[in-house]
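Supplementary Note 3. Input sequence used for the single-chain structure prediction.
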Amino acid sequence: LSNFRELEVEANVEIAELMGAEIYIYMVVEGTNIVAKVPPRSTYKPGDVIKVAIDMNKTHFFDAETEKTICN
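The predicted structure, written as discrete structure tokens, is reproduced below.
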């Protein structure tokens, strides 16, 4: 459980996009853009500052210029 807490960060929500069975949350963490897929009952909205726990076993990283996968 201690590793889980080490991955908790504060994020600024920029966009919340309803995509049917899920919502994509576009946010900024320390200047880095991050997208998260959350359940449709989530109530995040632009301007919210939220805490995000990142599960590194479920992350995907892409090169911003080439859009190629760095690791997943």
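Helices lie at 2-6. The two ends are 22 Å apart (CA to CA).
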